[in-house]
Design goal:
Elements (H helix, E strand, L loop, with lengths): L3 H4 L3 H8 L2 E6 L4 E3 L7 E5 L3 E8 L3 E8 L19 E6 L1 E7 H10 L1 H27 L2 H16 L3 E3 L2 H8 L3 H13 L3 E4 L2 E4 L2 H7 L3 H13 L5
Antiparallel strand pairs: 1-7, 2-6, 3-7, 4-5, 4-6, 8-10, 9-10
């Protein structure tokens, strides 16, 4: 188990949770939640990456957050909201540690450390959602794509990953042709290589220069706030 939120719990607390947790293998494109769906399970990604999409009129989408090994999916059920507001779709295959929401809520109500971590993480997630919403409204697609690629790199801790044009188009809320043009511009600047969905960042500094400041802001939100809870 490599989820950092779970690793931040004291041994006694994690032992009680583990009794009700099991690992699940998830593949790219698997939908864990749909908007309006009751949250039946809480997911702690280990080596997988989950993209959260807001849906507009059930056809247009926009990625509002990414959840990796630093986070948790569905914890709002313990805060009184057991209905998903987003589509949660697997961006990178791997494993998630899964626990029934009823068991999670029971442990949450009596575990002060878990409460602190979950409240902290949810505040971070909300701040990121707000920043990405601002970014999507005011910044150019090339800068937004650079931000998205940098965030994905940070979550996966790898310069190489797989993202199709179609997935990126849904995540950024644009047409595929827009993603193609933006990715081609980054490739012409020799910042990335991109072929058949296989992306490699070859100039991370250059990519940060292209990205808007939203990348730095969202990165600092998480790093500065949760550092006190991770051990």
């Amino acid at each position: 188990m490599s989820n950092r939120l779970l690793a931040g719990l004291p041994l006694d607390d994690i032992t009680r949770l583990i009794a009700n947790i099991h690992n699940v293998q998830v593949s790219v494109g698997t939908v864990l939640y749909e908007p309006g769906e009751i949250i039946k399970n809480i997911y702690f990604p280990n080596d997988s990456l989950i993209s959260l999409w807001a849906l507009v009129e059930e056809r247009m989408t926009l990625e509002v957050a990414l959840v990796g090994c630093e986070g948790v999916l569905g914890s709002s059920a313990a805060l009184g909201n057991n209905v998903s507001g987003v589509r949660a779709i697997v961006q990178r295959a791997g494993t998630v540690s899964c626990i029934d929401s009823e068991h999670f809520c029971t442990e949450f109500n009596k575990n002060f450390t878990l409460q602190k971590i979950i409240y902290c993480y949810n505040n971070i997630l909300l701040a990121q959602v707000i920043q990405i919403a601002v970014c999507s409204r005011f910044h150019l697609l090339e800068a937004r794509l650079a931000r998205s690629l940098l965030t994905t790199r940070d979550r996966l801790q790898s310069e190489k990953f797989h993202l199709t044009h179609e997935f990126l188009a849904h995540a950024l809320g644009v047409r595929r042709v827009g993603v193609t043009k933006a990715a081609s511009a980054l490739q012409q600047k020799q910042i990335i290589t991109y072929s058949r969905g296989n992306i490699e960042i070859i100039d991370a500094y250059g990519l940060e220069m292209v990205s808007c400041r939203c990348y730095e802001l969202t990165k600092n939100i998480g790093g500065n706030t949760l550092s006190n809870y991770f051990i």
